[in-house]
Specification:
The complex is a heterodimer of chains A (113) and B (110). Chain A is mostly beta strands. In chain A, strands 2, 4, 5, 6, 9, 10 and 11 form a 7-stranded mixed sheet that branches. In chain A, strands 1-3-8-7 form a 4-stranded antiparallel sheet, with no helix packed on it. Helix content of chain A is 0%, strand content 50%. In chain A, β7 and β8 form a beta hairpin. Chain A has no helices and 11 strands. Chain B is mostly beta strands and 110 residues long. In chain B, 0% of the residues lie in helices and 56% in strands. Chain B is built from no helices and 11 strands. In chain B, β9 and β10 form a beta hairpin. Chain B is globular. Chain B starts with a strand and ends with a strand. The chains are: A mainly beta (113), B mainly beta (110). Chains A and B meet through β5 and β10 of A and β5, β9 and β10 of B.
Chain lengths: 113, 110
């Protein structure tokens, strides 16, 4: 079975621009979570979606938004990019919204210049 | 507040045993996870504890004490490939938010 997939792998953007990151969960998984990981730190929770509804949100500004589609794939959007948004963005899927191991995708490395 | 503490770095010898500690203070608790993350790669799931006690899975074991807000990951028969960061993470009460520690970088030397 295919694991969690994310696109693109790498991305370079300029300050002030907008970016959209995409994630496809493992087949049969209905929950997707997004994390930001800055080098040398643990992942920071951004959002969790389950059955197309937002179930949790971390301490990120409104510039960050996300949605989940009927096929359970998800997009993370970041507006008005700042240099500090440079990070690895990880998507993780799990079977449902209850506590269970989540499986991470390879991530999207975003560099903002 | 939400806080998860782990040692920043540890070094151990191939074939030895190492224990990585994690203490947490969170507003809610619905399970504790350990993940392994090699440099430049995504985290991979190692273990999940929701009740007090020890969970063993091959060379890896994880312990939880909810009353003490404490967990450890025990790695036995260390191999060079175990050199990685080990992340402790706590799920909140609703189960929708996972808080990660900064991770412990483990170096395994020959």
């Amino acid at each position: 079975d295919a694991g969690v997939t994310q696109s693109p792998t790498h991305l370079i953007k300029t300050r002030g621009q907008h970016v959209t990151l995409r994630c496809s969960p493992i087949s049969g998984h209905k929950s997707v979570s997004w994390y930001q990981q800055v080098l040398g730190q643990g992942p920071q929770f951004i959002f969790q979606y389950y059955e197309k509804e937002e179930r949790g949100r971390g301490n990120f500004p409104d510039r960050f938004s996300a949605r989940q589609f009927p096929n359970y794939s998800s997009e993370l959007n970041v507006n008005a990019l700042l240099l500090g948004d440079s990070a690895l963005y990880l998507c993780a899927s799990s079977k449902d919204g209850t506590p269970y191991e989540q499986y991470f995708g390879p991530g999207t490395r975003l560099t903002v210049t | 507040g939400q806080n998860i503490d782990q040692p920043t770095e540890m070094t151990a010898t191939e074939g030895a045993i190492v224990q990585i500690n994690c203490t947490y203070q969170t507003s809610g608790f619905n399970g504790l996870f350990w993940y392994q993350q090699h440099a430049g790669e995504a985290p991979t799931f190692l273990s999940y504890n929701v009740l007090d006690g020890l969970e063993e899975k091959g060379r890896f074991s994880s312990f939880l004490s909810r009353s003490k807000g404490y967990s450890y990951l025990l790695l036995k028969e260390l191999q060079m490939k175990d050199s990685a960061s080990y992340l402790c993470a706590v799920r909140d009460t609703g189960g929708f938010k996972t808080i990660f520690g900064a991770g412990t970088r483990l170096f395994v030397k020959a």
